[in-house]
Amino acid sequence: DSGVTQTPKHLITATGQRVTLRCSPRSGDLSVYWYQQSLDQGLQFLIQYYNGEERAKGNILERFSAQQFPDLHSELNLSSLELGDSALYFCASSVDPRTTDTQYFGPGTRLTVL
Amino acid sequence: DAKTTQPNSMESNEEEPVHLPCNHSTISGTDYIHWYRQLPSQGPEYVIHGLTSNVNNRMASLAIAEDRKSSTLILHRATLRDAAVYYCILRDVNAGGTSYGKLTFGQGTILTVHP
Question: pLDDT tens digits for A88-99?
Fold first, then answer.
């Protein structure tokens, strides 16, 4: 158990819909990362927050957005969903991205878009 | 990001040592070498990291070539639980902008452990 929690575990929805994925980082970790894992693209970095502020952006679609709240939990919002958005979405947390510290990954949310 | 190259797959027998290679010929002086693994149906898990010297921890050892253009993750006695995809990742501690803090995963090496 990494200490990072993600809800829900599974999500099945239809094209065009909007969903919210939630992540609670390990106690004491200020940085949250979101990654997407699909069969064709592998594990891809989406976005990173540190203490409530966006710090880095990867290949995140404009239909996707995220935020980190004052209690440090984070939400990833996916809208206008397409079949190709079906993937595993992982959240990770770390103490401070400015060092070589470890990222701890949650168990993931499996999103299926029908 | 500097690129890493790993074999697609490797096989091992239980209780034997496993040496997982990684080439990173374009590594820079500020790139740390990180290894993560992903067990089936789980999120990635940190294994070990190093800069220049060899490193040991309870999970594995990391051997880094003198020129730093390659490294090897060593599992001293493979168990069935070590069957996973192993990722070798370079992480620049001085990276700013869009590279700040992120991990860039390649395809990794699928390790199969036979009983």
Answer: 999 999 987 666
CB-based contact B103:B92 (threshold 8 Å): no
- Nearest chain B Cα distance for residue A2, angstroms: 8
Query: For B68-86, what is each residue's pLDDT tens digit?
Result: 999 999 999 999 999 999 9
Closest Cα in chain A, distance from residue B4 (Å): 15
What pairing do the DSSP bridges indicate for beta strands B9-13 and B109-114? parallel
In this structure, what DSSP letter does residue B5 have?
Answer: B
Q: Is B46 touching A (CB cutoff 8 A)?
A: yes
* Backbone dihedral angles phi then psi of residue B8, each to the nearest 5 degrees: -65, -40
Return the number of CB contacts < 8 Å for A and B.
Answer: 66
The H-assigned helical ranges of chain B are none
